Amino acid sequence: MVTATLFPGRYIQGVGAIHSLGKEISKLGNFAFLLCSPTIYRELLPEIRESLEKDIRIMPEKFGGECCDEEITRLTAIARKTECDVVVGLGGGKTLDSAKAIAHYLKTPVLIVPTVASTDAPTSALSMIHEPSGEIKRPLWLEHNPNVVLLDSEIIANAPVRFLVAGMGDAISKWFETDSCRRKKVTTRTGYKGSLIAYTLGALCYQTLIKYGPKARKDCEKHTVTRALEQVIQANTLFSGIAFESGGLAAAHSFDGGFSLLKQTHNNLHGEIVGFGTLISLFLTNKSQDIIDEMYSFCEAVGLPTTLANIGLHNISDDDLIRVAERVCSKGSIIYHESVPISVGAVIKAIKAADAEGKRRRKLS
């Protein structure tokens, strides 16, 4: 059996890493198109601009807010006119996905600077394209992973804690999903079967987050970089990214597309939906009560959703439940990477069971 593993070219993490940005960009090119999220454009860019311009020329641009075809087309046209030879993304997941897409169309290297640890998007050769209104449209598979991923732990620690928690929701799903793909012998994004390192990192995500997640949340609330926070940043970003791309995804992530059909859920972050999707998957795949209890306890401790109400669906109708389940069960969905029988009815039953368990535990607390 042939396996394959995808990696970013270089992964840099630690306090003060942002001060190496100019040097790292200069290894890839001389003129950088910098795509910044609005907050980074306003607050961080003025602090680092002078030091960056000692090493390279830069052209900063503010991200419009949605990783959609229209925004990517606009930004790619601007970047092409600059004749830049490297693209840099600074910000959250949608900013970074857009930067990767721009570099893909321009055929330039790309350097990614996550300012939150909310998803595993930074390391992957994937941009998730949305509709301008927020619904997921399609994945855009890229020719290569980012050349460099650079995270400054101090910047992550000073970001709202909600982003770190969402990253935990995204990452903790990887043990369940990669294990399902391993058992089903799924062909991954690489075009080959999943690799041992990807499956191992999927399990390590779970182990790391169960051990360090609650403390990392408290440390982030205090804006303090600790060993626990560093471990969780790495699990959220590097471990999780390699695990999903070279190990595969399954039920938990299928719910991100399903729930995106309902506007009430659009205020949620990706990892919050995936975290709840993981709880649903426990019932769909008949996991033991011990695993169910451990996962719910973890979600409660770090602040991830455990009920439909937590993701904005306080009074979801039967019709909307059917719409979600039909999207989740659509042809080609990654939910079929699970080994259990999949049907619209089974998915609706699992959603209701996960919601009921979350409510039951709340009443007991």
Question: What does this 3D model show about the protein?
Answer:
There is one protein chain. With 365 residues, the chain is an alpha/beta fold. It folds into 2 domains: 11-157, Rossmann fold, CATH 3.40.50; 161-364, Dehydroquinate synthase-like - alpha domain (Dehydroquinate synthase-like, alpha domain), CATH 1.20.1090. The chain contains 14 helices and 8 strands. It has helices at residues 21-26, 38-43, 45-52, 69-82, 93-106, 153-157, 161-184, 196-221, 227-247, 251-259, 270-284, 289-302, 318-328, 344-364; strands at residues 11-14, 31-36, 57-62, 86-91, 110-114, 126-130, 136-141, 148-152. The chain has a 6-stranded parallel beta sheet. A hairpin with a 5-residue loop joins β6 and β7 (136-141). The radius of gyration is 20 Å and the shape is globular.
Structure, briefly:
53% of the residues lie in helices and 12% in strands.
Shape: globular
The count of DSSP E runs of length 2 or more, i.e. the number of strands, is 8
Strand order of the largest sheet: 1-8-5-4-2-3
Structural domains: how many? 2
Considering DSSP H and I runs of 4 or more, what fraction of the residues is helical?
40-55%
Q: What is the strand content?
A: 5-15%
Average pLDDT value? 96
State the CATH class of the largest domain.
Answer: Mainly Alpha
Describe the biggest sheet? 6 strands, parallel
Superfamily (CATH H level) name of the largest domain: Dehydroquinate synthase-like - alpha domain
Give the assembly state of these chains: single chain
What is the fold-level CATH name, i.e. the topology of the largest domain?
Answer: Dehydroquinate synthase-like, alpha domain
Low-confidence stretches: none
